[in-house]
Amino acid sequence: MAAGDPITDLSDLIFLATGGGGGSPELVNWHKHPFVGGAAPGTLVAGRLTSLWMYDGAPSGASNAAPPTTSAVTTNATDGAFKQATSAASTKKRLLSFSAVGLVAGSLILYDRLVHQGGLSGVTTGAQTTNLPTSALTRQTTGVGVELWLEIYTLIGVTGTTVTASYTNTVPTSGRTTKATSWGNTGFREAQRVIPLPLAIGDNGVTAVASVTNAATTGTAGAFGVTLAYPLVVLPLPVPGAGRLWSGIMTAGGPLSLGATSDACLAMAWFPNTATAPQLFGQAFFVEK
User: Which one in 65, 151, 190, 215 has a CA-CA gap of 20 to 30 Å to 162?
Assistant: First the structure.
């Protein structure tokens, strides 16, 4: 365990995980199905990141995890999150293990969905500021390691162009601009697609986003938004039907903190090997001290 961590050693961790010392162990079973609101999801493209935020299953999918219409801080109480229990005021909750098994090959990303917003258009050129700037971070407040994702909620156009965003880095310095990234056309337009935007040279995180700019129209407005995400676990699932386990005991750094108030909005994204939409099952196990 890290210096100053209230979990002192492995025996203390095992004690907590088995219910000792008021450790409040919690098991969350989750599953995601290849549907959004009972219909087929957006087309997957191998090697292009896909958000599972709106996929049906548990955590709840499209009926509750609707596209955001304003900028909002998401928490463990937000529909679409894992909804792990909030820890007591005097304790901190940690993720001890995370497992998954899938029916198709790919890699699963577990992340803290810090802030999201929507209402942006694939045809508008010039800086779009609808529902921006993003809300202030309440977790990972330094911005270090926070990623800037564009998340497509409704199909945008077939015309390929590029997109950038104006953001505030970790210094914090505002008015920083991401690298221009491909936007529109196959692989960069489908619903549930995530487009991570590369930051300016020297930057290692984001604290806010002020605007998003399409270099040209994609031909279809669709709908997309900004998600500020903090990746926690990357779990490769190379063999369909063969599950994998991430363990906070076996991994450097130990169990993962879920923020000062343990209110992380745990969500998932999928890095596919094929165009087949994933069906996934798994468990997350938490301890508290």
Answer: 65
